Amino acid sequence: MFHHRDHLEDLNKQLPLKNKLVSAHHSIQEKFPFISRIAITLYDPKTKILKTYIDSSGDDKPLAHYQVPLDDAPSLKEILEKGLPRVVNNLVTFEKGDHEHTQRIGRQGYAASYTMPIFHSGDFIGFLFFNSYRPEVFKENVLNILDIFGHLISLMIVNELSTIKMMNAALKTTSNITHLRDPETGSHLDRMSRYSRLIAATLANKYQLDDVYIEHIFMFSPLHDIGKISIPDNILLKPGPLNETERLVMNTHARKGREIIDDLITNFGLDHMNGIDILKNIAEFHHEAVNGSGYPYAKINHEIPLEARIVAVADVFDALTSRRPYKDAWDNDKAFNTLKQLAGEKLDSDCVKALIENQHQVELIQQQFKESKYS
Ligand code: C2E
Ligand code: SIN
Ligand code: SIN
Ligand code: FE
Ligand code: FE
């Protein structure tokens, strides 16, 4: 009998996905030292956009916070259409490509790449890239082994994403069972989660935010008002202004949301889920105000986690531009003006600025996610 050190033992541990990816990368490099970067992009089927998600490279981030419509990346689209991974053994030809992402990869000096599509039960999830500074390295014997690693990494990603998916499904079911009504329509959530992501991506350089954080904000922001399931219909659906008592009941939705999430975390054993604190903070603190006039705790400025400040702006903007039982929809100019007035008082100025400077993107989101007839 003898003992052997498992080279992938880190994968048994409770580590963030990024660390597991780095660890898998080190194991791969023991065999293939020429593989200098592994990267994953995720696909949003609703907008057909590919987004950088996670990578194992150190400080060089050729594609941080980058997104591209799949239609504008023909060679990636072809991978999907053919259902075959892509081998490029001489990226020099790529360097002159029209597309920003290929140019950025080219400038970083990568000479070869191997790209696998990631699927989960037949659904396309995104792409996995192996990049090398050396040309002509992705030969058959290398690819045979990389395929195994590639599928292992894909499973790690899928596992992470399905946990989040399960969490969202659990929350949606809970809210559907509790009340067969939901004033926050699906399209409200589609829009506000994308505004949140837009704000986070715009602030990424200033606040040093990585893609995983941005993606967590995108995935978790739709759950910000989960606590509203505990608010009785006569208050939640009231067609006019709330009186003082009703207002106090309404305001419990933030604290209540945090409790519901804590409960789900316990029941589903999600304590160690990556980014779970971001979810908790969004639910609990999205109505705090930077000047301390918010609820539930009257926190100020940086006491309020950034993810809650971001979601607050996205939420208020979408509430203003949507019809609610208690108000009509406003046009964008009026809503942007109100945001400007609220900046520095109720809302974080940087977050407001980040949304306003992306008006064109905001309009695209609105065009794509119009109100349904139920709202
Ligand atoms: P919501 O409808 O999702 O609104 C989210 C936030 O958007 C509000 O948080 C508020 O900050 C902002 N907002 C919405 N409408 C307006 C507006 O006309 N003017 C301004 N300046 N800001 C607006 P808030 O106030 O803490 O409200 C939280 C939730 O309480 C609302 O979520 C809504 O469900 C409920 N609510 C608030 N006011 C009323 C009301 O007058 N009547 C009824 N029925 N519900 C209300
Ligand atoms: C790609 O689609 O990923 C690269 C090729 C191109 O720039 O069109
Ligand atoms: C990437 O490596 O992240 C995408 C660039 C490519 O199309 O290979
Ligand atoms: Fe809320
Ligand atoms: Fe909301």
Summarize the structure.
It is built from 14 helices and 6 strands.
> How many helices in DSSP terms?
14
Strand order of the largest sheet: 3-2-1-6-5-4
Terminus-to-terminus distance: 68 Å
Which fold name corresponds to the CATH topology of the largest domain? Hypothetical protein af1432
Query: Which structural class matches the secondary elements?
Result: alpha+beta
Spans of at least 5 consecutive residues with low confidence: none
Task: Please summarize the sheet with the most strands.
Answer: 6 strands, antiparallel
- Please report the total strand number as a whole number: 6
Rg computed from alpha carbons, rounded to a whole number of angstroms: 23 Å
| CATH superfamily label of the largest domain | Hypothetical protein af1432
Bound molecules: ligand C2E, succinic acid, fe (iii) ion
SSE order:
HEEEHEHHEEHHHHHHHHHH
**Overall pLDDT level:** 87
Please give the CATH class of the largest domain: Mainly Alpha
Strand content is 5-15%
In words, what does this structure look like?
This protein has 375 residues and is an alpha+beta fold. It has two domains: 9-159, Beta-Lactamase (2-Layer Sandwich); 181-368, Hypothetical protein af1432 (Orthogonal Bundle). The protein is built from 14 helices and six strands. The protein has helices spanning 17-31, 74-82, 92-95, 100-107, 140-178, 186-207, 211-220, 233-236, 244-268, 276-285, 306-320, 332-342, 349-356, 359-368; strands at 35-44, 49-55, 67-69, 86-88, 112-120, 123-132. A six-stranded antiparallel β-sheet has the order 3-2-1-6-5-4, with helices on both faces. β1 and β2 (49-55) form a beta hairpin. The longest helix has 39 residues, at 140-178. One fe (iii) ion binds at residues 224-225, 253, 286-287. The site of ligand C2E has 14 residues, from α11.
